[in-house]
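User: Assemble these into one structure.

Assistant: Restating your components, then the assembled model:
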Amino acid sequence: AQSVAQPEDQVNVAEGNPLTVKCTYSVSGNPYLFWYVQYPNRGLQFLLKYITGDNLVKGSYGFEAEFNKSQTSFHLKKPSALVSDSALYFCAVRPLYNFNKFYFGSGTKLNVKP
Amino acid sequence: DAGVTQSPTHLIKTRGQQVTLRCSPKSGHDTVSWYQQALGQGPQFIFQYYEEEERQRGNFPDRFSGHQFPNYSSELNVNALLLGDSALYLCASSRGGYNSPLHFGNGTRLTVT
């Protein structure tokens, strides 16, 4: 069965410190990987994606993500967190054999403290 | 350039009633997907429409149905509402192509009492 795991319900970090939001997946083949952010009472907003190539991909608002094929992980990172980064973050996987469907993790709430 | 728009933003219904949610995709997008996001969970795939046909369906009962119109807009219909149908319903549009990300609307918050 396909699954996406975000092991941390919540991540707390001080403003200016680096942040990491973890994601691992269990999907056959080499899926496409995505990160989305959700602010209160809003839809999901696309941050970045990994399709192929360099394992470190850069996205919006200074976020980047590192793909690790052997660990089937796709962790979201940012070198210096901002209070405005506080939101709910979702990892998503799109299998190549079933590209109509995205599988989402359960989400990680990021709290950035001033 | 308007993004994905959904209506209404909030809706309160009673068990057993029927509801219709509407979605207009982002300009240039031809594919519409619907997701259900229960409180504290990630979005769950309901179905996807392309060229006015349901292309794929997730693990949802037949009470959930949809439609796509020639202008690519879409509707989600839920019959015989249950309390467990209370959730945020998200519409997402995309263009054809494997690496095209989903673009989401702000959702419709459905409360079933």
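DSSP finds no helices and twelve strands in chain A.
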